[in-house]
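Quick one: structure tokens for this chain, please?
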Amino acid sequence: MKHLNTLGIYILVIILIIMNFSTFSNEVKELNTNVVGIHSQQQINMTKKYIKEKKEPYYSAYYQLLSIADRALDNNIVPNRSLYIPPTYEDGKGHNEASKYLMSNAYDSYALALAWRLSNNEKYAKAAIKILDSWAYVNKDLSKRFDTPLVMAYGGVGFIYAASLLSNYEDWNQFHFRSWVQSVYIPNILVLEDRNNNQGSWGNLAALASFEYLQENKKFKEEITRTKYLINIQINSTGILSKEVERGKDGMVYTYFSLAPLTQSMYLIYNVTGQNLFDVNTIEGEKIKRALDSFYVYASNQQKWPFYHGTDLNNPSMVVPHNWPANLYEAMSTIYPSYYERLTVGYRPILGGYIRDRNQPSHLAWNFPSLLPPFKESGRLNATK
């Protein structure tokens, strides 16, 4: 009898362990694990189908991506052991010099990882992993001063995009890169958390992408609250981003520079949780839609911009290498009114992320909107439930 009681206790303990493990597993899988960064597997599958059918603009956009990925195979990988990026308005040359390899390496890793996902060619995966591991092994310190956190957010997030796309690649030991994200990258970009302008938007996107990659569910949900706050604090009742339009000749570019990461974050949140912040029946969706409508008017006719009347207004340009805000409206036209396409249809495939005359993108949000527009499982993501 004593042995039977002991056996019963053992069985009960095992059952409890199994139940606890099951509960833990459910908590871990509460967020959608069929997400690869700012993309979903369904989105990638849909694009692959359209490429196979030679459907435009996906087909041309795919070969545009492959040309970028092929060039990236030969680009230099130059990680910094310690990185400090001076403020661009005080030392523009020093800023560009300090950030150029970070920007190019991060963009290359993202383009390569995306090329692998769409082509299944392992040369792209291996090249992307080489970049990620190089930075993880070499970079030990990121300054929290001046422009370093911001550039690591709007540029370095490309490393996180790439890692998420490669997260199921069997031949990659992710230990060192995951450690770098946790101990070096995240503490740096979290410096931006208390900022309520475009810098806060970029910090929020970088944090969301990082916590999705690491499957830090609780922290990811906390960042959703931050996304909602940023939408509400930045956009006023008329759809204007007050802190950005005050920037004189750069008021238009900085309006775009905050809307791009905000909307990219909203789509990542939708992919991961199913929560549709684009829905105009929500406070956030209504505000974003109003901001996009307002900015569309000015992007279509810069002469109507009422916040700066100098002749040196930094105007939108739909032609490469600028292509802003064409990339934003290319993505948003699959969610909101199709008339947004009037800004983009003549320039497809849109290659996003360019603002100024540079040889590489100046940020990583909506970089390939013609290739991978926002989708939901049954088709396009709707603006209403």
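Residues 326 and 344 are 5 Å apart (CA to CA).
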